[in-house]
Write a structure and sequence with these properties.
It is a single chain. With 374 residues, this protein is mainly alpha-helical. It is built from 15 helices and 2 strands. It has a two-stranded antiparallel ribbon with strand order 1-2. A hairpin with a 2-residue loop joins strand 1 and strand 2. The longest helix is centred in the C-terminal third of the chain and has 31 residues. The protein starts with 20 loop residues before the first helix and ends in a 6-residue tail after the last helix.
Length: 374
């Protein structure tokens, strides 16, 4: 019997480049360019996390469909079909021809074979839904579907990536609590429609009318719930995130390690420190204090220059060299992506060099300038 566990994506530790958006969404990257950081960036900085949640929910819907069809195929192969689900020899033949479906990635396919498998899976689900409608057992009338319609729109779903799609398939699928029923697939499709696509939905995302109309008609009138129905919307959202959000995410996390509130805090600290340093420096000069006393100016100048350089580059060089990146204000995580760690170390050394040079120039200027008591 084929292994029914879907292998979890493994990060590429030898990648000598910045990751692509699909690698981030597929959980093939590490902090600070992983899905966790990207989700927080979309939520706090882009203010468009609903688009990311939509893409992830469609990915989870695809995973649920694969799990459901894989279980049907297994039941056919071992000769224990489940009544309605194996109503015809044609359906059994389609199931046997699908393969194991043990692959991930709902938007970009590693091979034509896997793309064809998903297309055949969608065709099978459409055929099954049509057969159920013809026999008076439409999935639209299932308990799962009705529960979805009664769900309050004020109950904001938790982030989709917190519940990995692989949770559906990493445990014993023969256990009832891990079994995906046909009603679950219908409810999942309706959840996506009612949460993101219908006009006036609490988390409505802006898509071309033709795309939303096609999905709405497909679900509500034709009874479809196969993942192929969402392909156009999913690809549109993916391209929008890749074009509008992902470049800024890479700049923020691969070239810096601070979030905007920390950058603003360093700007304030830097300006106050520089004001204090210049104020004290001129007082010491015009009161004709000795150079040894004026050497203490190194403290406010160093704090001020360091804070302003950190603000300018959105990078705290000491934290970067220690291997930390900020994901929310004053919350840090280890930098685990090798290429990003290397990149941030180089930038941190550059920022430290600039800081030391400017600091040294200011200290030398105000320490060695002749004093004159007014």
């Amino acid at each position: 019997m084929a292994d029914h566990n879907t292998p979890s994506p493994q990060p590429d530790l030898h990648r000598n480049r910045l990751p692509s958006l699909f690698e981030v969404l597929s959980r093939r990257t590490l902090a600070p360019v992983d899905l966790f950081y990207f989700y927080i960036y979309m939520r706090d900085q882009q203010r468009s996390v609903d688009y990311l949640d939509f893409w992830l929910d469609v990915a989870q819907h695809m995973s649920m469909c694969r799990h459901y069809v894989r279980e049907l195929r297994r039941s056919v192969m071992i000769g224990t079909p489940d009544g309605d689900k194996s109503a015809s020899k044609r359906s059994s033949a389609m199931l046997e021809g699908l393969g194991d479906l043990n692959h991930g990635g709902p938007s970009i396919y590693p091979s034509d074979k896997e793309k064809n498998q998903d297309a055949q899976m969608s065709a099978y689900l459409r055929q099954e839904a049509q057969h159920a409608a013809n026999t008076g057992h439409s999935p639209a009338g299932s308990t799962g579907s009705n529960n979805m319609r009664q769900t309050s729109s004020n109950d904001r779903p938790r982030p989709s990536f917190m519940s990995s799609p692989h949770v559906l398939t990493t445990s014993d699928s023969n256990s009832p609590e891990h079994t995906v029923a046909r009603a679950d697939i219908r409810a999942s499709a309706e959840k996506i429609l009612y949460t993101y696509l219908l006009p006036g939905a609490e988390r409505e995302i802006q898509l071309p009318h033709a795309i939303t109309h096609e999905i709405t008609v497909g679900i509500e009138e034709h009874g479809r719930d196969d993942p192929e129905l969402f392909d156009s919307a999913k690809d549109y959202v993916f391209q929008a995130m890749e074009r509008d959000a992902f470049p800024g995410f890479l700049r923020a996390k691969a070239l810096g390690n601070l979030v905007p509130p920390s950058v603003l805090m360093r700007l304030v600290i830097g300006l106050l420190s520089m004001f204090a340093a210049f104020w004290v420096a001129f007082i010491l000069i015009f009161l004709d204090y000795g150079r040894r006393t004026r050497l203490w100016l190194i403290l406010p100048f160093t704090i001020g220059v360091y804070a302003l350089c950190s603000q300018q580059y959105s990078l705290d060089p000491i934290l970067a060299l220690l291997g930390f990146s900020e994901y929310t204000f004053m919350n840090f995580n280890r930098i685990r992506e090798p290429f990003v760690r290397k990149l941030l170390n180089k930038r941190a050394i550059t920022v430290l060099g600039v800081t030391i040079f400017i600091d040294a120039c200011l200290v030398v200027l105000f320490v060695f300038v002749p004093g004159k008591r007014l």
